[in-house]
Design brief:
single chain; alpha+beta; Helix Hairpins; Sec63 N-terminal domain-like fold; 28 helices; 11% strand; elongated
Length: 686
């Protein structure tokens, strides 16, 4: 074994090697990604968004973007590696191999007389009697004297010339790359080694496990408390109107933890007076309604008032402490709304259906919070079934501006979009008094708004038609287009202080029975993930149908091209219900933009199950089954009955339609209520 002094010098080299193996390739990958990353601007370029400062690239913003945890860790590791390289280089100079001829300044094979002359010359220079410097004394004793002794002794010189060492042939040496104080396991060093082993191997993993378990027991994977999910699940009702979704949303456990200070009382009172008209209070009994409102839990009162401050754009005058709570509330809002949406569409009955009405309400609340538009703006007014809410998300627009352009026969948002750019500029300049810069801002936002189209089919794989009890496969291609050519983009949201990506929810639902048959979240931001998912789904579908390798390859290439052109594939399965005709509707709802949602009607005909239970035998013996699926799109959006939702439909007409469909299929009429029995308290998210 090598001595501890020799082996301890290997410890820095060992650490350097272990660090370099993952660090060097990881740094190269990060650098290549940074160089190849496209610098395409995907956020809104209007003046209002620029003034908001959300996308401003100041020096502080650049530093904060760089100073992420991963980047700082990477820099720190490279600094440690640089220090180790310097330290290893320094100790390598000190631990050079013993070279007696070189020490005496002679060439190999020098004679005895030359060795003595060199020794005398160096003695005059380094001998303690001649040179009082301690370093000179150390060098003379450890190197010069040792070299002279090794070369003047015949045996030592012969060994050195043959084997490179004065002591002769040296055996192979092995050592442990650990510091010397850890190898001397006695006294304090042994205790340090023991503590290190216990700390690294036992305590550190135990602490990490405790932290992970304590956090995972409190939060879901989306960083939402389990208590919040339980609350949302309990208070979610099938008949929950969109205007009442707010009452469920504010009950999140995260919001209940926001502190309510005594100093918040006066600012909240002022805020209450500003947003009182949005709180759905009965004006006939306003005093009783106000007293009832303030008797709620203080956290509920504070949260609702802060959300109304966002919807009415009254947050500018909030004090600093309340403004901090306001931003914290908005930061958590998107993921809480996403979980609330999942609680609305989660299977609630034996058929595995969720609820449509509250799901639409959640999306509309999300749109209003992101765009800072009051829920009352969704009331049908001025001949427009969608209200003034879509107009309010445009820059420089207000309720007064909407009234001015309504006098010019532009009463709906679709009419404004259908106008040419010149006609729109003329309208906004003359009727609304906009400057050319303000008109340009409106055009920028209109070019950012997405346009959605849906191609959806439902079929039983490998069979003709759909029979009751079949596992039906839904395949939908959702395509997004923008006038500016972007696919994935950040919405125009100057009043929402955080980055928010667009998300879409595809719902296959029966509006009459309020049932959601299928739901899935769709994102257009990650093209690579969408290509992978679409390729895998198409390949599995084609392989299941017995397609050839060439056909599968062509189908996959076509799917990849569709994804690159702005389409996303959504696939799902559900069990076919009882025999009958079903008028379903596919909803593609955006959680960020108002007025960009899309509805597509889908008629599904479910046939009676054959007696033999074999689809193949029935297809051969019986007559050919017609395809029970028809598709048609609705370009016109349904109006409001009240201001609750643009998707609200007349209940009586819906019931008459269902009765006619049921009778036509020869099935006894069934009562269709919007509620479904809740089965158990536990649930799984789709």
């Amino acid at each position: 074994m090598a001595s501890s002094e020799e082996t301890s010098s290997l410890f820095p080299i060992f650490i350097l090697t272990i660090m370099a193996l993952p660090l060097v390739p990881y740094t190269i990958i990060r650098f290549c990604r940074a160089v190849s990353k496209k610098t395409k601007t995907i956020h809104c370029q209007c003046a209002v968004c620029s003034r908001s400062g959300k996308y401003r690239k100041s020096i502080f913003k650049r530093i904060s973007n760089f100073s992420t945890c991963s980047n700082l860790t990477l820099v720190l590791l490279w600094i440690i590696m640089g220090f180790l390289v310097y330290y290893i280089k320094h100790i390598s100079r000190e631990s050079q191999p013993f070279e007696p001829f070189g020490i005496l300044g002679l060439e190999s094979g020098a004679s005895d007389s030359e060795i003595k002359k060199a020794y005398r010359r160096l003695s005059i220079q380094y001998h303690p009697d001649k040179n009082p410097d301690p370093e000179a004394h150390k060098y003379f004793v450890e190197f010069i004297s040792k070299a002279y002794q090794a070369l003047t002794d015949p045996i030592s010189r012969e060994n050195f010339e043959k084997y490179g060492h004065p002591d002769g042939r040296q055996g192979m040496q092995m050592g442990i790359a650990l510091p010397s104080f850890l190898l001397n396991i006695d006294g304090a060093s042994g205790g340090i080694l023991l503590l290190g082993i216990v700390g690294v191997c036992i305590l550190l993993p135990l602490m990490m496990a405790v932290i992970y378990l304590s956090r995972s027991s409190k939060y879901t994977g989306n960083y939402v408390m389990h208590q919040t999910l339980s609350t949302y699940y309990y208070f979610m009702k099938p008949s929950l109107a969109p205007s009442k979704v707010m009452d469920v949303f504010i009950k999140a456990a995260e919001y209940m933890e926001i502190p309510v200070r005594r100093s918040d009382g006066e600012p909240l009172q002022k805020l209450f007076m500003l947003v009182r008209s949005e709180l759905n209070l009965d004006l006939k009994n306003i005093r009783q309604e106000q007293a009832k409102f303030w008797k709620q839990h203080p956290s509920l009162v504070k949260t609702e008032l802060l959300i109304q401050a966002q919807l009415t754009r009254e947050s500018a005058d909030l004090p600093s402490t309340l403004h901090g709570d306001f931003k914290r509330m908005l930061e958590m809002a998107p993921r809480l709304l996403e979980e609330l949406m999942k609680m609305a569409v989660i299977p609630r009955n034996h058929q595995g259906h969720g609820w449509l009405r509250p799901a639409i309400g959640v999306v509309e609340l999300s749109q209003s919070i992101i765009q800072a538009v009051p829920l009352s703006a969704r009331k049908a007014a001025g001949g427009s079934s969608e209200g003034i809410a879509p107009f309010m998300q445009l820059p420089h627009f207000s309720e007064a501006i909407v009234k001015k352009i309504a006098r010019k026969k532009v009463r709906s948002f679709q009419e404004l979009q259908d106008m040419t750019e010149v006609e729109r500029a003329e309208l906004l300049t003359q009727a609304a008094g906009f400057s050319p810069a303000e008109v340009q801002d409106v055009e920028v936002v209109l070019e950012m708004m997405p346009s959605i189209t849906i191609e959806i089919t439902c079929e039983t794989e490998g069979e003709e038609g759909i029979q009751e009890g079949d596992i039906v496969t839904m395949q939908a291609w959702v395509t997004l287009k923008r006038k500016n050519g972007l696919i994935g983009a950040l919405p125009h949201a100057p009043y929402f202080p955080f980055h928010k990506e667009e998300n879409f929810w595809l719902l296959l639902a029966d509006p009459v029975s309020n049932d959601v048959w299928m739901s899935q979240k769709v994102s257009f931001m990650d093209e690579a993930a969408a290509i992978t998912a679409a390729s895998k789904a198409i390949q599995e579908t084609k392989e299941g149908s017995g397609a050839t390798v060439k056909e599968i390859s062509a189908a996959v290439r076509e799917a990849v091209e569709k994804v690159k052109n702005g389409s996303r594939l959504v696939m799902g399965k559900f069990q076919a219900p009882a025999e009958g005709n079903y008028n379903l509707t596919s909803f593609c709802l955006c959680d960020s933009w108002i007025g960009c949602d899309k509805k597509t009607n889908l008629k599904v005909k479910v046939l009676k199950r054959s007696r033999a239970g074999s689809r193949g035998a029935v297809a051969e013996e019986g007559p050919a089954v017609e395809d029970g699926i028809e598709e048609e799109e609705e370009d016109e959006e349904e109006g409001y009955d009240d201001y609750e939702s643009e998707y609200s439909e007349d209940e009586e007409d819906g019931q008459d339609t269902k009765k006619k469909g049921v009778v036509a299929n020869g099935v006894a009429p069934e009562k269709s209520s919007g509620s479904s029995s809740e089965e158990g308290s536990g649930s799984e998210e789709e």
